[in-house]
């Protein structure tokens, strides 16, 4: 109804950012503009994702990225769209992306922020219409404004993030983010072209009944991880693993659960990347009352060494993560 729409319009992302940011130390508005630039890029990628099958955007590019992964067309398109949106927005001086080896300079040397981004997460699901996402992590630069950014801007560590979030291209498209005072989720209403606040102050249940892990690597996991999985089955937990970290993370945050990508023989440090997958989601998890660990320490306390370093990743309901970490610490 018109009344319902009026209520909805009152809580658009733009209004929310303005309200939230006006009480925020960086009230000069750049972070607000940057969040809007990311939201816009998400709308554009949402459109590409929703018609991938129609305009031959699915499938592989026939080239691989710095990760040694076969890049999907949408990986490259999402990367280009985000880089363009952040370059045009003017608030970001440099970017680290999963899809590029080194720093991408935006020529906005006066920009106060740097962004680390996974432009499209869950690439194996692009062609089969399963949820995929974008993950972003934002830092204030430490190098002087007006100079060219460098590695030190990106090696500040997880607890220096000023904001982080993701866009989930699922049965609905959602933008979920935090600037350090709780997590809020917005559902995209495409007929209005607006993100509408749908989940205010998201909290992750302390415990849950879902575990997410790639069971195919069971034999390669630490015996304590194996014991946790066997015990979870005995306790009647539900296994849900869709191969898109953003989708698994979002569902487990809402319902309670744990996602694990431990070290395997093939991936001795795990598969997931610290800078643009684990740090941002760990930031959100802690903001929702959940937790995130590499098995020995909180993800946010890991000292970063390079742009694409990987880490084992255990994230979700604090009680569940605590149980796994306690078991792994016993094995050290
Ligand atoms: P990306 O598509 O950005 O490379 O990330 C994929 C990640 C994550 O989204 C997912 O949970 C995991 O890879 C799946 O890996 P496996 O296929 O090894 O389980
Ligand atoms: Mn990838
Ligand atoms: Mn990813
Ligand atoms: Mn990716």
What report would you give on this structure?
The chain has an eight-stranded mixed sheet, sandwiched between helices. A five-stranded mixed sheet has the order 12-11-13-15-14, sandwiched between helices. By secondary structure, the chain is of the alpha+beta class. Helix 3 (30-50) runs antiparallel to helix 4. It is built from nine helices and 15 strands. The chain is globular and about 50 Å long. The protein has helices at 2-10, 13-22, 30-50, 73-89, 151-154, 223-234, 245-255, 274-287, 318-331; strands at residues 60-64, 70-72, 92-97, 104-105, 113-121, 132-140, 163-169, 173-178, 183-189, 194-199, 210-212, 238-239, 258-261, 291-293, 313-316. Helix content is 34%, strand content 23%. Strand 8 (173-178) and strand 9 (183-189) form a beta hairpin. The model has no long low-confidence stretch (mean pLDDT 93). Belongs to the FBPase class 1 family. Residues 205-328 form the Fructose-1-6-bisphosphatase class 1 C-terminal domain. Mg(2+) 1 binds at residues 98, 118, 120. Pathway: Carbohydrate biosynthesis; Calvin cycle. This is Fructose-1,6-bisphosphatase class 1.
